[in-house]
């Protein structure tokens, strides 16, 4: 079964967070990742800012765990500016 994109389901992540004390995970799917990469390559957006904001959206919705293709890059960005 295909995994639905995570961003359109932030309301569901939020509802799960409200209903359980168990860890809640969200998957930032490959299509969302590819969309950001392609837009950044064309100069349409700042990849770092948009990728970190996207991951922050998952956290604000209540995700404790975020599975993302941006994991390594985001950790580097966050180490450069830990106040984010």
Automatic annotation (TrEMBL):
EC class of this enzyme? Answer: lyase
- Give its E.C. classification number: 4.2.1.24
Substrates-to-products reaction catalysed: 2 5-aminolevulinate = porphobilinogen + 2 H2O + H(+)
Asked if the Swiss-Prot or TrEMBL record annotates the protein with the keyword Lyase, the reply is yes
UniProt record similarity statement:
Belongs to the ALAD family.
PANTHER family for the chain: DELTA-AMINOLEVULINIC ACID DEHYDRATASE (PTHR11458:SF0)
| Entry protein name | porphobilinogen synthase
Name the species this protein comes from: Emiliania huxleyi (strain CCMP1516)
């Amino acid at each position: 079964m295909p995994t639905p994109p995570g961003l359109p389901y932030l309301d569901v992540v939020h509802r799960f967070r409200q209903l359980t004390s168990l860890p809640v995970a969200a998957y930032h799917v490959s299509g969302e990742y590819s969309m950001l990469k392609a837009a950044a390559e064309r100069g349409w957006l700042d990849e770092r800012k948009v990728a970190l904001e996207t991951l922050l959206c998952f956290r604000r919705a209540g995700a404790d765990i975020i599975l993302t293709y941006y994991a390594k890059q985001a950790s580097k960005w966050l180490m450069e500016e830990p106040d984010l």
